[in-house]
Every structure is written in structure tokens, then in C-alpha cells.
Amino acid sequence: MLVGESSVTIEVVKVGGGSLASPGFPARLSAWLDAERAARPSWERVLVVGGGAAVDALREIDRVSPLDPEVAHWEAIERMVSNARLVASWLPSVAWADCYERLPSGDPAVLLFDVRRFLREIEPRLPGPKLRASWDVTSDSIAARLAGCLDARLTLLKPPGFLRHSVPDQAPLKATWAPWDSRLQRLVDKDFERHAAKVAAIRFTTVE
User: Which helix (H) or strand (E) holds 27?
Assistant: First the structure.
């Protein structure tokens, strides 16, 4: 089903790769998704998983022995996909998706999205700011770009404790969507704001 052919509300959920090594994370993520589905059963959720420690290691390799930016970018994307496969193994009821043209699917489903084809073939042809091959672009910006292209809401799932340590005076961020607030730029990558401007509603939360 092509974008625009369904009235289903789409929520892109960026799962922080740094959370994957947190004890009990698979069960907590599953419980969080169950609660979200119970609260908003008609929504379709598209999960994008970050690269976490695997991308951090690649970044360190690039610092010591510089890589071509395009090589580093696509290797980081491969690590995101590897992490998405791990999450898929923990959530057997969640479907794997790699076809942007079929989003939304028309069902209130949860989909794990393989971003590779979207980034290589689709995203460069879509209107709006393009993603760059740079360390300024992380999975946060990729998720924001996808959400903007799909006219979707965006939830950024950060590691446990992240919001308490980063924004102790902004607890409402855990519960509400809002247009992008540039004062929160320090919580995301340097390129995020260019793409967040195209997203109507964004929220930060954690899976504690």
C-alpha cells in the first residue's frame, strides 16, 4: 500500500542501540510495545534500531584509521540492521519489513524496518533535506527522516536513565508528543534538527 492510501496513524519508533545490552531489555521492550498497542490499538508502529556499541566501535576505528565517509556510513547502516535482527529474534510477533512503498501496511501492526533499501534507493529521491554520509547523522536522524517522509509521529526510545541524567527538569518529555524544540538539540545528533522540522510530533522516552 502506498503512502497516502491509508488513514492509519504511523509512529516511527527509534530503538536506541545502546539499550540492547541493558539487562532485561527484551522483556521491557516487549512490555512497552504491548502497553502502547493497548493505549492506541489502531496505530501502526515502524521500529528503527540504532547501531549502539557496534557503531561506536566503527567510529573509533575511523578515528584511528580514517575511512572513506561513504564506507563508514554504509558500514554503520549494516550494524543497525544487525541490531534490528537481534531485536527481531526477541520479538517473534513483530514482522520484518524492507519495502518503503508498502508503508503503511494498513494494519495496526508493529514492523521492524530494514532501512538499507530506503536509504540507498528511495530517500535520495524524496523531497526534503537529504541524509548525508557523515558522523553527524545517526539513527536518530534516519528515524526522523523516515518519519517526515511517512507523515508519521516519532518516538525516540533512549537508554534507561538517559532522560533523568540529560533533562532532569523536563519530565513531560516522557509522556507527550510535541513539535521539535531546538533547545533539545543536545540530546540528538547534529543533523537531527534538519529532519525533525518535517515531523509534526516528537517525543522522547525510555524503557525502564
Answer: helix 25-39
